């Protein structure tokens, strides 16, 4: 691994309250990827006060956390692009990735910050990767809030759901982004367990979701191509997580009840001997228009702040 280096001049971000925050962009070389990450605020402050707050998604990159980060201008906030997403190009030529690889990237970023243990809010696939990180390196994370991790193997209907994930991946390779993403949206929003004959149901129409119906030949979508099977197939190491020094809070959105990721969050929490913390809105509740998604970011941020301070 090479040392991290500054790749852009510090820039300023202005949040809703007109607070100006410096954003410094850095990169580091990891095994098989070049990782880009952003630091908002002063790392020296993270050494002296509250831990740095690391906001983690996957395959969503740093741009999806712009609104949430703007509500934490009193803390040093770190965001990053997972390998194969956003600016973080893969250098190993691999077609798929697994949570253990992402966890190692997270470890390297935290160590490069040089501020000790961080607080971490991780959502969706990022929550899966964060659980993999904490099971291996609990000393790097003080508090982890794992929001709606799609850890399918913990579900009672895991076999059926994993078959759906495999079908989505195969659809992407065969037919392209539109048909595969339509199936993914239908899967993510479905309430309740999946039946064994789910694949026999009519495939959703991509046009109904505003998706392209023609295949453009590209196969570089990080969700459908890289993470669809590796992320959802990850089973958390509950023994290691229960023994970890990290305080782990599993969270789910109030409006997500019954959906796959919320159901998985409840099962992960149960595996840790706890109940999920209920956050406002849904799976993207922290968003304020990123990717066209509007949650309840102010309320979400307040809930996150409260949960972090409870530790």
**Molecular shape:** globular
Number of strands: 10
Question: What's the CATH first level of the largest domain?
Answer: Alpha Beta
* Proportion of residues in extended strands: 15-25%
Oligomer: single chain
Q: Kindly, what is the distance between the CA atoms of the first and last residues, rounded to a whole number of angstroms?
A: 33 Å
**SS-derived structural category:** alpha/beta
Order of helices and strands: EEEEHEHEHEHEHHHHEHEH
Main sheet specs:
10 strands, mixed
Q: How many domain units?
A: 2
CATH architecture annotation name of the largest domain? 3-Layer(aba) Sandwich
Percent helix among the residues?
A: 25-40%
Supply the number of helical segments. 10
Radius of gyration: 19 Å
> CATH topology of the largest domain, what is it called?
Rossmann fold
Q: Give the uncertain stretches in residue-range form.
A: 1-10, 13-18
| CATH-defined superfamily of the largest domain | Alpha/Beta hydrolase fold, catalytic domain
GO cellular component, one term: membrane
Pfam families: Abhydrolase_1 (PF00561)
GO molecular function, one term: hydrolase activity
Protein name: Abhydrolase
